[in-house]
Structure formats: C-alpha cells, structure tokens
C-alpha cells in the first residue's frame, strides 16, 4: 500500500466480497454509514478507526519492510513474539500503579 486511496479500494473490494453494504457496517462495528462512506472515499482516518474497520471486514494489519526481504509481520505475531521472548511485567511498576506499594 502506498497511499490512502489504495487502502480505501481494498476496503471496498473486501466489503463487496463479503456481501456487506456500507449501512451494514453499523451492525458490525457501530459505525454510521456516512462515517464509513468517508473512509471508503479516501478520507484520512486515525489508526484506531482503521483497526476497527479492518476487524469488521475480517482483515488484519500487517507491516512489511520496503526491501521485502523479510516476511510481513502481523500485529498479532509481533505481540506473540514479545511474549515468547519472556518479557514480563515489572512487579514494582505494577505495585506503584495499582497502589499495593508500601502495604504489608
């Protein structure tokens, strides 16, 4: 994807392939037809809105390096890989944020 118009075209194609009308997106993701129509028209959207639309169309975001030597990494794979590497929450930070610091 190189621009917003390409993303919008992909969304249109996917919606039609699923047999969904723009007005049906309200039932799938709680977005009014007019708002969704602007997205398909190529309007700039927040990432959170795009992720919501992708979820409603059974799509997911993946990021691919421009050199294309490395395989694409989906958002779900990236978070799963972090968990596999053994990253753990810092108990001291949790205690600070949730108020159990200094309690016996």
UniProtKB/TrEMBL annotation:
InterPro entries: Cro/C1-type_HTH, Lambda_DNA-bd_dom_sf
Domain HTH cro/C1-type: 11-64
Span of the signal peptide: none
Chain intervals for the UniProt region annotation (Disordered): 67-91
Domain of life: Bacteria
GO MF assignments: DNA binding
Alphabetical list of PROSITE patterns matching this protein: HTH_CROC1
Protein name: Transcriptional regulator
């Amino acid at each position: 994807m190189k621009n917003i118009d390409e993303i919008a075209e992909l969304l249109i194609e996917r919606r039609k392939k699923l047999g969904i009308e723009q007005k049906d997106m309200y039932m799938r993701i709680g977005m009014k037809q007019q708002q969704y129509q602007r997205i398909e028209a190529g309007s700039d959207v927040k990432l959170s809105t795009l992720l919501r639309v992708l979820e409603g169309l059974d799509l997911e975001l993946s990021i691919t390096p421009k050199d294309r030597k490395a395989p694409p990494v989906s958002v779900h794979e990236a978070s799963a890989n972090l968990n596999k590497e053994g990253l753990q929450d810092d108990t001291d930070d949790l205690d600070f944020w949730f108020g159990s610091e200094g309690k016996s």
